[in-house]
Amino acid sequence: MKSKICIGECILNYRKQQGLTQSELGKLLKVSTQAVSKWERELCYPDIFLLADISDLIGVSIDEMMGRK
């Protein structure tokens, strides 16, 4: 059974829980604030090579970001 991919929603919620702005997260990941904004609005997804770094920074597993518990 397929789960909904919630990468954008997860990034938004967990970024805020960590007290990071979009700009701060972008700087830590070496991407633009606009890129983070697009992810959070689910206009696009982060590059697959960034998933581990995003996971570490926001404190959530890649599985959870992908909608798997």
SSE layout and pairing:
Layout: H1 7-17, H2 22-29, H3 33-40, H4 51-58, H5 62-65
Helix pairs in contact: 1-3, 2-3
Q: Would you give an account of this structure?
A:
There is one protein chain. This protein is an all-alpha fold and 69 residues long. The chain has a single domain (7-65), classed as lambda repressor-like DNA-binding domains (434 Repressor (Amino-terminal Domain)), CATH 1.10.260. The protein is 57% helix and 0% strand. It has helices at 7-17, 22-29, 33-40, 51-58, 62-65. Helix 1 packs across helix 3 (33-40) and helix 2 (22-29) packs across helix 3 (33-40). The radius of gyration is 11 Å and the shape is globular.
Keywords for this structure?
5 helices; globular; mainly alpha; 57% helix; 69 residues; 434 Repressor (Amino-terminal Domain)
